[in-house]
Amino acid sequence: MPVKGSKVVLDSSFDVDLNGLRENYPAVDAAVQDLTQTLELGYALPEITSDLGDQVYARLLDYPPKGAAGLQQFSVIYHATDPELSWTEPYRTFTLLTITDRRPPT
Predict the structure, then answer these.
(1) 100's torsion region: left (phi>0), alpha (psi -120 to 50) or beta?
(2) Whether the Cβ atoms of residue 14 and residue 99 lie closer than 8 Å to each other
(3) Radius of gyration (Cα) for the chain, nearest Å?
(4) pLDDT tens per residue, range 69-91
(5) Which residues neighbour 16 within 8 Å (Cβ) at sequence distance 6 or greater?
(6) Which of 3, 36, 49, 86 is the most buried (most CB within 10 A)?
(7) Which residues contact 103 (CB under 8 A, 6 or more apart)?
(8) What's the whole-model pTM score?
């Protein structure tokens, strides 16, 4: 049975966090776009569970412009719905909740 793909939604708190990172990380939007595409296309990705609630997960996000120093630069917290086989509803909906710098510049 064909299934509609997943979708990614940015919570307003994520937008606030992202705006705060842009000054020090001008390519952070490209990194988030890579994450968005990965979530939309990846049907069996491993998920890091979080103690923030049911179906709330974490993912470490690289910042490629920094090379090896940018590996796992950011922590992203997101909510994910259960998979749903449907013609009209997304397979899963991922809501990005927060993004934080794990190693802020000093």
Answers:
(1) beta
(2) yes
(3) 14
(4) 999 999 999 999 998 888 888 98
(5) none
(6) 36
(7) 73
(8) 0.90
